[in-house]
């Protein structure tokens, strides 16, 4: 299994540009989520999904959209990038939102918005 | 609001035990987790504990949970240089969301 994969690893955007951060998992996990990690702020939940066709907002959803058309994929879209969205983005998945088991994280996407 | 608090920095000599502490506010938390993040990498689940347990041991790792005081700790025995990382405490709250602390950076002294 490849686990949780994220592309791209690095990205530089100009203010106002849009882009999609890709996330895929091959573990047949129901639950997937997106976090951003900023210095001194820890991890903050952006959006999450408990299964295909179901998404919900996390702590900091503004400026981001998600969709979950398949179990495997959970892309994160930045509609109009802003410098405040400069961050490291992590995608994660787990078997169920109620599991005590592992939440697997991808390697992250480092985004710089100029 | 719900919060998970942990100290930001811990310095330990190689071979000593490291104890990383965490407090949380949601008494309805069902699971509590410890994650490790090495530089430039994603978070790796180290261990977790169910809220009806007091202790869990896994090789060099010992997790202690004091549910009354909402206090969680991670003890790493015989700390090695490879243990140098940021350690995140997290809880699964009543809304089935995982809330993370800001992370404790563990520095190993020779």
Structure, described:
The complex is a heterodimer of chains A (114) and B (110). Chain A is mostly beta strands and 114 residues long. Chain A is built from no helices and eleven strands. In chain A, a hairpin with a 3-residue loop joins β4 and β5 (42-51). By secondary structure, chain B is an all-beta fold. Chain B contains no helices and eleven strands. In chain B, the strands form two sheets. In chain B, strands 2, 4, 5, 9, 10 and 11 form a six-stranded mixed sheet that branches. Chain B is globular and about 40 Å long. The mean pLDDT of chain B is 91. Classes of the chains: A mainly beta (114), B mainly beta (110). At the A-B interface, β5 and β10 of A face β4 and β5 of B.
Q: Any descriptors?
A:
heterodimer; A: mainly beta; four-stranded antiparallel beta sheet; globular; B: 110 residues; mainly beta; six-stranded mixed beta sheet; 0% helix
Radius of gyration of chain B: 13 Å
The count of β-strands of chain B is 11
Mean pLDDT reading of chain A: 91
Beta-strand portion of chain B reads: over 45%
Uncertain spans of chain B, ≥5 residues at pLDDT below 50? none
